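Let's see one such:

===
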Amino acid sequence: MLYLIFFPLFFLLFWLLLAGPRLKTQQRVKAYIDPQPKQEKVPFHQLAKSGMARVGKVPFVENLGEVLLSAGVEKSPGKFLLQSMLLGLVLPFFALPFVAGRYWLLLLLFVLGLFFPRLTLVWKITQRQTAFALQLGDALNLMSNSLKAGYSFLQAMELVAREMNPPISQEFSQVVREVSLGATVEDALGNLASRVHNDDLELVLLSINIQRQVGGNLSEIFDKVASTIRERLRIKGEIKTLTAQGRLSSIIILLLPPVLAAFMFAINPQYMLLLVQHPLGQLMLMVGLFGQVLGILLIRRIIAIDV
């Protein structure tokens, strides 16, 4: 019975993701072959596209669009939500023969499939921001040398976009593209700051805005800011080395209980099943899980040092 529900939804979402662009291309070609206007019904894929555009105007989904930009993912919020729903349906669909009446597992798999792409976005944002922070000092040195050679500010940014690797090349290229399309430099740089969320970049943008208002040697400002950024990265590296033991302790605290439980379950399953089935054992598990999470948070709070 559940297959009759999952299969049509799965097929519909899959068709929307793959068949929509192809039908759109066919519609555009048909307009040149048969240019006579006709009273036709609106194709289904256009209705789906319109619906996805309306979904993108929902406040929560608009926030999702900002997250997608920060992660460097070139997808619309509606399409991302559609793919998340598709993944949320695929996992329960293939796990359906193995649940043996435990339908709460299907709900759990649906939630995991629905939120897994969002967790992937968080990981991509973290990786992208880390790579951007490491590239920012070199980018400022390149811009400083370009300004000394007679380049303008936008030409220096375009040089960084052309010569350096992603993600900083992509972000600077986006700034140059926005300015070429009519946006002001301040607005384009503000959009860059909203996408990247980097303290060093905010310092750079603040120095640029001050220089544009009161004047000054921008290349010298870039040299000083780049020196400050490199010193901050050096101190962060030393702190990371000194706090390595604390981070390792948090990993051990996180992994030791489930690994030990799995080992004991493999040796004596009945002994471990008593812990899960008995109410006192369930209470002990909840208290232990709470203490474990609390310990990890405390360790992370201790080793988190701002520079």
